[in-house]
Design brief:
Number of helices: 12
Strand order of the largest sheet: 3-2-1-4-5-7-6
Distance between the termini: 57 Å
CATH topology: Rossmann fold
CATH class: Alpha Beta
Helix content: 40-55%
Strand content: 15-25%
Number of strands: 7
Radius of gyration: 18 Å
Largest sheet: 7 strands, mixed
Order of helices and strands: HHHEHEHEEHEHHEHHHHE
CATH superfamily: Vaccinia Virus protein VP39
Structural class: alpha/beta
Number of domains: 1
Amino acid sequence: MSTTDDQAAEAKYDYKADEDMRTDVWDENLHVGYWSGPEDTNAVEVATDQLTDFVIERTRIAAGQRLLDVGCGLGKPARRVAERIGCGVVGISDDPSQVKRANEAAEGAGAAEQVKFLHADAMDPLPFGAAEFDAAWAIESLVHMPDREKAFRNVAAVLKPGATLVATDFFENVPLGGARKEAVDAFLGVASLGPIPRLDDYPALLRSTGFELVEFLDITENTHRTYALLLQSLYDTEKELRADHGDAVFDGFVKAFKGCAESLVPRYMLFVARRSADS
């Protein structure tokens, strides 16, 4: 028997200890999909690669340069940019199991010399020299960091002056209330996510941490299909997921993704920033 709605709303999904659920219902890319428009009917696996490509294009990394992947997940985006561009990539994660799986996947793909993953937390000073990287990205990892300001400062410290930082993040553009706030709260709850910032706070946050905002894109309309597809994937594998992960987690995910799909929240952005030369 499933839990009550109240119990489901309180369910917490440990994205580190129980990461397999995310790959079971989605993709090895642990981020949203990107669809160019209503006519784009690509499958999830293609859409998540399309988001990676969208980020790659704006990172402007070149062959022979070094990219820092902040919050690398299982390493699929890092392998993709290394293969497509010919750059070197160092990915970091505060989860040792992610680092292990990412390095194993890189070795299996024959990319271990070009792509490496280390156990490190962006909340702490990073184990690299000053100005060591030509660019950095953070694909949907900032929401797992309790203090974005601290993370940005630590990333800035290892980037070359003028280097590019590209990131995707959830955001609020207006104060939320009613069903929209309930949807976001449920979403944050099941995924153990950190606070979602107000859009107005971002430019000053970047300036204070050594960056200049270059470009901001609200890509909610291109990514929001993710929640309906996640919801359908949950229903398609309901029996197995309930058995493997429990009723509370399953019902909590259904409540969260249903609310997000119906309310067009949380909103999703990509920003490009430049490491200030005088910071």
